[in-house]
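Box 3.1 A note on notation
Throughout this textbook, protein chains are presented in two layers. The first layer is the amino acid sequence; the second is a token string describing backbone geometry. Keep the layers aligned when reading.
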Amino acid sequence: MASKFTELAIDCADPRGLARFWCSVLDYEVQDEDDGLVTIGSPMAPEGKHRPGPVPPTLTFASVPEGKTVKNRLHIDVNPTDREQDDEVRRLLDLGARRADVGQGDQSWVVLTDPEGNEFCVLAGRHP
């Protein structure tokens, strides 16, 4: 049996604040909160430990003392499911995202950063 991608851990300064942002982006909810650690996941899927098939991954935000200093080596891509890319980008900017230039040039995706500067992409035309 192969491994399943079930969780992405994200170091940050403000786990609660960043969890709130990503809950709004992904329509997730807080699943667990402990001192300096917040886990969010889809309310539509039960916890994936005992499920054999795919499950939406959870995001875990962990408080760390150091700040972000360079471009992410790994990032999240999001796909708008009920609106066009431009409308989704505006919604995410209203939530606190910022536009970013990581040298992507003229592409079909839009690069943004979350409130702590982590890059992510909003894809176009890939409605899951």
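The radius of gyration is 15 Å. Residues 97 and 114 are 5 Å apart (CA to CA).
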